[in-house]
UniProtKB/TrEMBL annotation:
GO molecular function, one term: oxidoreductase activity
Protein name, entry field: Enoyl reductase (ER) domain-containing protein
Family, as annotated: Belongs to the zinc-containing alcohol dehydrogenase family.
Organism the protein comes from: Aspergillus nanangensis
Entry-linked CDD domains: benzyl_alcohol_DH
Length: 376
């Protein structure tokens, strides 16, 4: 399909904090290395809600967010490298990367040197965007290379992964961010051994995916921390060996040190909450690793004592997108689902596109884990 201008619709954030609004959108100037995808499903991630409120300093508005799209290819640019992709292919969308920097070329595309401009700014690297609103305002439509809150979107070729089981596209829609981030943190980045202990803060999509991955590896001690008992029950069902409701415990770091006899080997924050980040290093033992996975507030600063870090040989690190190569890891996760290790159907709740406000309200209230919007 060739087109000069193409009218579709999307859920737009006109300015930081103004909320989401369904609006007509015009697409134009698809480039030879891009792909037009008709969205069938769009997962909602906390990153989208964070972004709608001005949570990212690099993001400009008006913008279309959404970075867990799943749909069907409707047009292919002539220079797309992956020749397995064609018009009609069912695809899962994931984060964007440049494909040419040192980290992209050494199998760590989530450490791409242009990760922030390519994923967070909502624009292409040259600052252009292929979308506008009917009144002529330029619309940022390249969030994570995809802006999947659009019914049709012009997507970076690096964001497009063929879905190995198109009949289950709905259930796999959120593999490209939330599940990949949690599961990849365990299976790709940390690779703990079964006798190493793990504490996970936040039993949402990312935390639950990390718990399922840790259970798959057979870890004997997996501690989940959250403020909601329903989420902790789910964490137990899916692999946590111990749960802590942080509202009912005074000193969480102390509690974790007791439970793990001196601190866990790994403490992973999936919440971005400042008070959790402040105690993360205290939750790990000497030689242990504290991991930032959830999105913190942009202006929050962590006080770290380097002398203590040295004498306790601790590591503080960030892991973005689970250090995953989406084209490899998404198919691996579909296999884990099909073999019963990743019961995604227990975690996903579907909403019609006209119910997007309810979906956001439900995930904000902690009533559900992963909302997925279904396009009509
Ligand atoms: Zn790169
Ligand atoms: Zn996400």
């Amino acid at each position: 399909m060739e087109f000069n201008a193409f009218e579709t619709e999307g859920i737009v954030v006109e300015q930081a904090g103004s909320g989401f609004k369904r609006m007509p959108v015009i697409l134009h100037n698809m480039r030879p290395d891009e792909i037009l995808v008709e969205m069938k499903y769009s997962g909602i991630c906390h990153t989208d809600i964070h972004g709608s409120k001005g949570g990212y300093s690099a993001l400009r508005y008006p913008a279309v967010l959404g970075h867990e799209g799943a749909g069907i290819i409707r047009a292919m640019g002539s220079d797309v490298q992956d020749k397995s992709l064609t018009v009609g292919t069912s695809v899962i969308l994931s984060y964007n990367h440049c494909g040419g920097c040192r980290n992209c070329l050494s199998s760590h595309p989530s450490c791409c040197s242009d990760f922030e401009p390519l994923n967070i700014s909502g624009k292409r690297l040259d600052q252009s965007t292929p979308a506008q609103l009917p009144d002529g305002r330029k619309l940022q439509s390249q969030f994570f290379g995809q802006s999947s809150f659009l019914k049709h979107s012009i997507v970076s070729q690096y964001s497009v992964v063929p879905c190995p089981y198109p009949e289950d596209l709905a259930i796999y829609a959120a593999l490209g961010c939330g599940f990949q981030t949690g599961a990849g943190t365990i299976l790709n980045a940390l690779r703990p051994s079964i006798d190493q202990s793990l504490v996970i803060f936040g039993a949402g999509t990312v935390g639950i995916a990390a718990i399922m991955a840790a259970k798959f590896l057979g870890l004997r001690q997996i501690i989940a921390v959250d403020v909601l008992d329903d989420k902790l029950r789910l964490a137990t069902e899916l692999g946590a060996t111990q749960v802590i409701n942080s509202r009912s415990v005074g000193d969480i770091a102390h509690e974790i040190q007791n439970s793990t006899r001196g601190g866990a080997q790994f403490a992973i924050d999936c919440t971005g909450v400042s008070s959790v980040l402040e105690i993360l290093l205290d939750c790990v033992c000497s030689g242990g690793t504290a991991v930032v996975v959830g999105s913190p507030k942009p202006d929050f600063m962590l006080n770290v004592n380097p002398e203590k870090l040295l004498h306790e040989s601790k590591t503080l690190r960030g892991i973005c997108q689970g250090d995953s190569i989406a084209k490899q890891f998404i198919p691996e996760m579909t296999k884990l689902h099909r073999s019963g290790h990743f019961p995604l159907q227990k975690l996903c709740t579907f909403y019609g596109i006209d119910e997007f406000e309810q979906a956001i309200a439900d995930v904000n209230a902690g009533k559900i884990v992963k909302p997925i919007l279904r396009w009509d």
